[in-house]
Design brief:
151 residues, alpha+beta, 2 domains, 5-stranded antiparallel β-sheet, 3-stranded antiparallel β-sheet, 8 strands
Length: 151
Amino acid sequence: MLPPTAEDRVVELIEDAAAGRSIAGRYHNLDPVDEASTAQFIYVEEWLDVNGEAVLEVRPGPVPAEGAFRFTRSADGRATYLISYGWPGPQVRSRVLRPAPGSTITLLGWSDLLPWEQFGGVCVITTPREMADEENHPCKQAFVFKVTAPK
């Protein structure tokens, strides 16, 4: 059996957070003593620098999974995170996500608010056009959309 890759480590963090399993300190189990483990540690740390709030000290989302999406919630319940494995393209379409009217949606690592609409049972989020170019992505592998409920 091959040792886990850096990508596998990020998947473990996401899956555990969506399932409500504690991940506190888990990525620190990587022992950066050689070039390969150092590269793995850096990859996970860079992903967490952008997206950590979606997997650290969170609760499971309303439904843990929908296709390539995973869901978590902030401890105070005000934010819901949709974590997309891979770049979703020009739109995110979710039947699970149901933002309250007046909610704001952002992409972690991107400062602008994202336009969204609720069409019956489907929430549609428009992703930034600039993100069509992979070089502009705020991270690799998995992307987090944060839905913040109005106060």
